[in-house]
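To close the chapter, one final illustration. This time we ask the reader to focus less on the individual chains and more on the assembly as a whole: which components sit near each other, and how the overall shape emerges from the parts.
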Amino acid sequence: MTRELTIKDALNEALRQAMEADDDVVLLGEDIAGGAGRDEAYPEAADAWGGPFGVTQGLLGQFGRDRVMDTPIAETGFVGASIGMAIAGMRPVPEIMYVDFIGTSFDQLLNHAAKLRYLYGGKVSVPMTVRTVTGAGFRAAGEHSQTLYSLYTHIPGLKVVAPATPYDAKGLLLAAIQDSDPVIFMEHKRLYMTTGHVPEEPYTIPLGTASIVRAGDDVTIIGVQKMVHTALEAATELEQQGISCEVIDPRSYSPLDTDTILTSIRRTGHLVVVDESHPRCSLATDISALAAEHAFHDLRGPVRMVTGTHSPVPFSPPLEDLYVPDVPRIVDAVRSTLDQGRKGAEAVAHGR
Amino acid sequence: MSDTKMPLDLDPADLLPPAEPVQLLDDEGTLHEVDGYPLDLKDSDFRDLYRYMVLARRVDKQAINLQRQGQLGVYASLLGQEAAQIGGAYALDQQDWVFPSYREMGAALVRGVDPGKVLHLFRGTWLSDHDPHEHHFGLLSIPIGTQALHAAGFAMAAKLDGSDLVVMSYFGDGATSEGDPHEAMNFAAVYEAACVFFVQNNQYAISVPLSKQTKAPTIAHKAVGYGMPGYRCDGNDVLATYAVSRKAVDRARAGGGPSLIEAVTYRMEAHTTADDPTRYRTPAELEQWKRRDPIARFETFLESEGLLDDAFRAEIDEEAQAYAKRMREEIYDAPHGDPMELFEHVYADPPASYAEQRALLQRELDEHGTS
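The assembled structure is written out below.
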């Protein structure tokens, strides 16, 4: 019998199983316990919250305050302290409440977490998993709605993972926590309530393996995190128009499973990348460049990117809805690359 | 109704540093007893402290020479700060850990680290070739003050592990303006971590004097804001830096939590070999601090105690020469390694894409020759 869980509950289960399996796994962050500082006075309130999205709910009660720590409000502080804990041999899992707050901890990630293995010549590891929350569509304004995938993907020494399904969320989080290197684990706030099959027993999904979520022949659509679902909707609509789409979820942006992506592009000859991030220096441009460099002669139409605009995510609800790529834009992009490809082929056939 | 009591059972007055820096040896090298800072040192410890200071000065001089000879890219001298950093590190046990800044070659010696191995960091040959887990001595941290958080986190982990080890983090006066040491001290205090924050106040952050860095009465006063004691000592008096560190380390080991030490000292050399200090400080100031040389002062004391004779001097001198020789052998023309090392140690298991980059680099090297 299949068991359905939300992504939120799949992540909660992964954290619980990681902590049960290894005493060195500890959680720390702002409000992750929720009221831990007051639990002598209000024992019933101590485990009330589990963060704004409730991912860590209930873990305080099972593992205690030494392993589920509400920290002072200081991202540099708890990321830097996590690095120290990791050097000491622990596997800390700090949570940055919104990826937008990661700026204050950037130096510790960029110059320390990412570089310590290298600087120490391999004699030190930083097995830390930074969980954080991405994404627009939550009416949360520009400082609580970014994705920033590419900021971390750019940095050698970091791994970057962003699941789109409950099954992947659990398997990737368990793999990230077991990994010897620092992993930025990105959870999309609009996907927390997405449900799907999740086995009860612990399992891992290797970081750096993409998932073909829908097989197809005419065009390859790469969906970035939440956009996987939007791409699937578009694929269903396009199927009714006789267009067969292959939808790929890279799942891990660093390392990136370039083989799966390129194999698909070489077969379909068309690429559309859907990423709700800003267009410049993004995963969309990165994957487009990958196709240009390694699959140029297999492409039969121009690469299309469907992205957010190069402006902050708007607070205005109608404008925010315009910002996030939707099904019609993906459908247009797919039709456009196929049309252009057809015109090009006809031109060649007619010797023009 | 909210609780209006002070959150901790602490009288801020108890956390304040003394009005004057703690000094056990006066400028003339005469020992004075100071209440609350008993000395638990044997004759062999006095000799050891002296030995480390002399070795550190020789190692420092050798490193500067190696830089002048083009063997090191850059080097940050500790000249004048021997007493400050050696007195601190000497108060630690074997099990304890040090997270240093880039100037801590003296502390490295106390931890038994081969200075030649560390200098690879400044040559760029290989990054730092010492084993942190063997010596419990972290990387010489180049970004300012960031290592203080690693120290706090390490101490938090040790506490969770039930260990009574103490972590000492060194940083400078300039670093106290950065956010990381602030957050580190706050975290260590909140989690009652066994962490001692040791500030060598050498008066300048490159060219910027302390007066432009803070309006706090002293750096040690900042401790009160974290709910930890602030200690302040004469950083050119190795017995004072040791005694104050002893107190802070014992307190931390006994579960009393973190503390902040300010050792008032002076950097006699440039910030690093890359700047010219005559452009930002006066000869008179330098002269004044030269008269307060930490090694000369300690020598006077040792002589008066009959602990320093020609044989011991000769023994240390020989050891210092041996250290310098070893450094030259380690660093001089040390090869820059295989270009393929570019891909080593970025990740524990290199991702598949690295094979492609490796092959590309190899192809370029084959076509255009090795560097």
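Chain B has two domains: 12-337, 338-371. Residues 338-371 of chain B form one domain. With these observations in hand, you are ready for the problems at the end of the chapter.
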